[in-house]
C-alpha cells in the first residue's frame, strides 16, 4: 500500500513556557503582573524530517518558543482565551506546516479566593484550507 497522499499527524510540544506579563481583566493584574505558563502542541507531518534529517521538514521549535514568548510579553489583553488565540494565529502565520494546534494558557495565581492549584484554558485550532 502506498503512502502517497496520506497526511501524517505527528506533533511537536513546547511545554511550560513561563513568562511574567500583565494580562487580566482586573486593574491589579495589569499593574502587578503575574506569571503565565504556556503549553503548545503543534500537529504536523514530520515524515520528511524523520527521513531526511533536515530542519526544512519541521518547525524550528527554538524560533517558535521565541515567538510565543514575544506574544505573551507584548500588549496586555483582558482574557487568557484571547492570548491563546494570538499565539495560535501567529504560529499558523509563521509556519505553514502546522495543520492543527492546542494552546494552553495557565494562570498559576489568578485573583480568586479559594484553594486550587491554578486556572487554565485550552484552545484547539485547525488550519483552514
Automatic annotation (TrEMBL):
EC code: 4.1.2.25
Q: Name one Pfam family in it.
A: FolB
| Record's catalysed reaction(s) | 7,8-dihydroneopterin = 6-hydroxymethyl-7,8-dihydropterin + glycolaldehyde
Looking at the UniProt entry, the stretches that span the membrane are none
Top EC group: lyase
Q: Is Membrane a UniProt keyword of this protein?
A: no
Which keywords label this protein?
Answer: Folate biosynthesis, Lyase
User: Pathway it belongs to?
Assistant: Cofactor biosynthesis; tetrahydrofolate biosynthesis; 2-amino-4-hydroxy-6-hydroxymethyl-7,8-dihydropteridine diphosphate from 7,8-dihydroneopterin triphosphate: step 3/4
Q: Which InterPro entries match?
A: Dihydroneopterin_aldolase, FolB_dom, GTP-CH-I_C/QueF
Q: Which GO terms describe its cellular component?
A: cytoplasm
Listed under GO biological process in this entry are: folic acid biosynthetic process; tetrahydrofolate biosynthetic process
Family of this protein: Belongs to the DHNA family.
**Function per UniProt:** Catalyzes the conversion of 7,8-dihydroneopterin to 6-hydroxymethyl-7,8-dihydropterin.
What this protein is called in its record is 7,8-dihydroneopterin aldolase
Per the UniProt entry, what species is this protein from, by scientific name? Lacicoccus alkaliphilus DSM 16010
